[in-house]
Amino acid sequence: MSLFEKFETAKLLKSGLATAGADPTGVVFDTLNSPTEGVVDGRAIILAGTNNYLGLTFNPECIAAGVAALESQGTGTTGSRMANGSYASHGKLEEELADFFQWPHAMVFSTGYAANLGVLTALLGKEDVVLLDSDAHASLYDGCNMSGADIFRFKHNDLQSLERRLTRLKDRANRCLIVIEGMYSVLGDCAPLAEIVALKNRFGAKLLVDEAHSLGVYGEQGRGVAEAQGVLDQVDFIVGTFSKSLGAMGGFCASRHDVLSLFRYVSRPFMFTASPSPAVMATTREALKQLRTRPELRASVWANARQLYGGLKALGLELGPEVGPVVAVRSKDRQTALANWNQLLESGVYVNMMLPPATPGGGSFLRCSISAAHSAGQIQTIIEKFSKL
Ligand code: PMP
């Protein structure tokens, strides 16, 4: 087999996606009218497939902060923090994140993906064990694989499956990291975090929670599912991203353990990539400020989520198990999902298409994500368009 032959499978996949109409992986937004409306092929489309949970991408204060940083500090840092130095805003954002979680340490990475690679490879080595939820995001799988640790998956959100694996570890349990998400991004279901914390305490393991999709949305102060379930003080590491509710790009880890401050010296995905640009740091800091001071954004995203979930449920559609900012609609099969995705786009609604193997249980889903910036009218239109499928 030649070097390029393996791409035959990708070629087939690509042509299969395009048979039902537009290719869902190739949608181009010519321009954006607002956080909830884009233009595709000259037509205005309601955006129901972004992770723009707080709707801050067009927030005037965030934009002004970004523009001011561009003008005063330039377009990019042109290097890594280890080799080329940090900008003051990197450290400021780290202080602000640590303060947000009321923990001593936080560390900023260039993307959420890099944060997961960076934290897992720093924390885990060949002698260690990781227990990973089977529905965890690809970046968590990749980080665990790169670390060289022994990886055992447990059944998604299944406490008995987790407990069985912890029991089998015996003495190794104290070299074990449990890796889960707060809210899982395909079906929008949350981890039973309080019970997982109780288990990890019993066995002396450590716990990392990826709150990428829950930051800003769950918890009284928007700190995520761990806060919502009252166990934030017992989680060991929180990772997350700036690319969803904060409307920017980048990632972070926060921890109550001093060891996080040493990750900078050993974490290759931190050391060997350029640091986030000043404009990205500025918009992220302003968005974090808004997340902390405008609880009404959280109230809006929840009101919209309830409206969409209730409306789609009333149509008799099969949805994820919980009301939340991610509402996944199960399709009969792959072809139906593709056809319905195209019909929705034709009728002016953009949602995400989630196909196996990137989905729980190999299902095919149309995934909607809700923003605080959606109007009740837009949510009603999304429901109507689903009713026509
Ligand atoms: N973790 C989870 C759970 C995610 O869903 C994502 C992105 N979809 C990431 C990490 C990576 O974040 P980013 O896109 O900011 O690199």
Give the averaged pLDDT, no decimals: 96
Strand arrangement in the largest pleated sheet: 4-10-9-8-7-5-6
H/E element order: HEEEHHHEHEHEHEHEHEEHHHEHEEEH
Total domains, how many?
2
Q: Largest beta sheet, briefly?
A: 7 strands, mixed
Q: Based on the structure, what is the oligomeric state of the protein chains?
A: single chain
Ligands, deduplicated? 4'-deoxy-4'-aminopyridoxal-5'-phosphate
Q: Can you tell me the overall shape?
A: globular
- Radius of gyration, taken over Cα atoms and rounded to an integer in Å: 21 Å
Number of strand elements:
14
Helix fraction?
40-55%
Q: What's the CATH topology name of the largest domain? A: Aspartate Aminotransferase, domain 2
> Structural class per helix/strand content?
alpha/beta
What's the helix and strand layout?
Blueprint: H1 7-18, E1 31-34, E2 37-40, E3 43-47, H2 60-73, H3 81-84, H4 88-101, E4 105-109, H5 112-123, E5 129-133, H6 138-147, E6 150-154, H7 159-169, E7 176-181, H8 193-203, E8 206-210, H9 225-228, E9 237-241, E10 251-255, H10 268-271, H11 278-293, H12 295-314, E11 326-331, H13 334-346, E12 349-350, E13 352-354, E14 364-369, H14 376-387
Parallel strand pairs: 3-12, 5-6, 5-7, 7-8, 8-9
Antiparallel strand pairs: 1-2, 2-3, 4-10, 9-10, 11-14, 13-14
Bound molecules: 4'-deoxy-4'-aminopyridoxal-5'-phosphate.
4'-deoxy-4'-aminopyridoxal-5'-phosphate binds at residues 111-113, 116, 137, 139, 181, 185, 210, 212-213, 241, 243, 251.
